[in-house]
Specification:
The chain is an all-alpha fold. The chain is built from nine helices and no strands. Helix 4 crosses helix 7.
């Protein structure tokens, strides 16, 4: 509870003595490039192969002749939209983005760069942390949408190349009984996960003290806590919104 209270107080300082909109916008765009553009490759690789593996494994388990093969496309689509794209992508980004945020802020803290900002009258949390949180909330949904397309595409490629399903059957499956709300639900989850990853990682990095060893521990703690928060939030959101 002590750490949770400290975390809430930390979040409240983001909006006190805020920077000008121009500075905040420029900082947010810089962070969006670091968080979003630099994560496209890893998201593309992971989502494509997850879709491919899902398609092959579903095909392996559908050995009943009475179940149409188009069910493979349907199940790949549902699993991708509801769980694989938002949750797995966010867990991967927790490892990449979360550790980067915690390590960067931790290094600035132990080298007294944060103290220098405070001496100059700048609210260090508003200047350093708030752009990271806003940028994460902006780019995570975009990365999740990319993961959706690539995961379904990976399932299509794997299913057709292995001969487990024809192109027409797969396309028929992903088009059948489509519920648009599932996409909205996935995007809501991506926004919540983005906030949790960026804020928890920033909190762990900002309160780092010591040396290089402590920076590494902060990065590890940021990833661990972010993943746990994602899984808990995933369960809560599924119960509330589905």
């Amino acid at each position: 509870m002590q750490h949770f209270g400290k975390y809430l107080l930390f979040m409240s300082t983001l909006f006190s003595r805020g920077e000008s909109p121009r500075i905040l916008f420029n900082r947010t765009m810089d962070e969006a490039i670091i968080i979003g553009i630099n994560s496209i490759f890893i998201v593309a690789i992971v989502s494509t192969f997850i879709g491919a593996v899902t398609s092959v494994q579903i095909s392996y388990n559908l050995d009943n002749a009475f179940i149409p093969r188009s069910t493979i496309g349907f199940m790949v689509r549902e699993m991708t939209l509801l769980e694989l794209a938002p949750t797995i992508t966010s867990i991967v980004l927790a490892g990449k983005v979360g550790s980067s945020i915690a390590g960067g802020l931790g290094t600035m803290q132990i080298t007294e760069q944060v103290d220098a900002l405070e001496v100059m009258g700048i609210n260090s949390t508003s200047y350093l942390v708030l752009p990271k949180v806003i940028a994460s909330i902006l780019v995570f949904p975009m990365l999740v949408i990319l993961a959706m397309f690539l995961s379904i595409g990976g399932g299509f490629i794997a299913g057709t190349l292995t001969g487990e399903i024809s192109q027409q059957e797969y396309i028929s499956g992903i088009r059948s009984d489509f519920i648009p709300y599932n996409v909205v639900f996935a995007l809501i989850k991506s926004v919540v996960f983005a906030f949790l990853i960026s804020s928890i990682s920033s909190f762990k990095g900002y309160y780092t003290s010591g040396g290089a060893l402590e920076v590494g521990q902060a990065s590890t703690g940021a990833v661990t806590n972010s993943v746990i928060a994602i899984l808990v939030a995933d369960f809560v959101l599924a119960n509330l919104l589905l």
